[in-house]
Amino acid sequence: MGASGGEAAGSARVVTISATYGSSGSLIAPALATRLGLPFADRLIPALGGEPAAECGEQLTEEERVASRRTSFLDRLAHLTGGLGLPVPAGDDIRDHVRGQVEGSIRQIAASGGVILGRGAMVVLAGQRAAFHVRLDGPEDRRCARAMALEGIDEATARHRMAETDRARAKYFSRIYGLDAADPALYHLVVDSTVLPVEACVRLIADAAGAFWGRR
């Protein structure tokens, strides 16, 4: 499933951004939204040690909040009923429910345009003609150094957060879609954002997105 633009009729301008820990996605994505004059929707899985979603501007629909609570409840129920010999909710049941709610929210955002960080939006919107898909990444050492500077933490803490955060996001993406989020075929643009200032990355993505939309 490549980032070819697809055949869907969607015309609202959308930028999806997938970003690894330490690649400054949480800074670049909202700044890009401001530059493009588009709404911003934050990721579903914040970095380990980061602020809770509700405090960092994440836009969740009520359906997503319900799905999150339901998943947590079913997880607890599985542990409880498993020990009592009662039926245990299947993992696929939980996955399909959460996937349906998240994808619905992504399409709702995309209908009027926006910048979406995370959420696997590059897969959900792979067929939307005006959706421009971006990946932010970089070598681990540079991502670690950037995280240390931005969060004011030591190297051991940064490396721990990087490993746990990247693993959680990769696991979510793999379980939901069976794909590797690092696959460059999912994106129109891949940027090593650890070697450029945030503002330079924002300008680069904005210019590339503008060129992408201009040729359609």
Q: How do the helices and strands line up, and which of them pair or pack?
A:
Blueprint: E1 14-19, H1 25-36, E2 40-41, H2 62-82, H3 91-112, E3 114-117, H4 121-124, E4 131-137, H5 140-151, H6 155-177, E5 189-192, H7 198-214
Parallel strand pairs: 1-3, 1-4, 2-3, 4-5
* Order of strands across the main sheet: 2-3-1-4-5
Query: Based on CA inertia axes, which overall geometry fits?
Result: globular
CATH class: Alpha Beta
- Average pLDDT value? 77
SS-based class: alpha/beta
**Biggest β-sheet strands, sense, barrel:** 5 strands, parallel
CATH topology: Rossmann fold
Total strands: the figure is 5
- Provide the gyration radius in Å: 18 Å
Number of domains: 1
N/C terminus separation? 20 Å
| Percent of residues in β-strands | 5-15%
Under the CATH scheme, the architecture is: 3-Layer(aba) Sandwich
Element order, helices and strands? EHEHHEHEHHEH
Helical content, roughly?
40-55%
- CATH superfamily caption: P-loop containing nucleotide triphosphate hydrolases
Which stretches of 5+ consecutive residues score pLDDT under 50?
4-9, 50-65, 67-91
Count of runs of 4 or more consecutive helical residues: 7
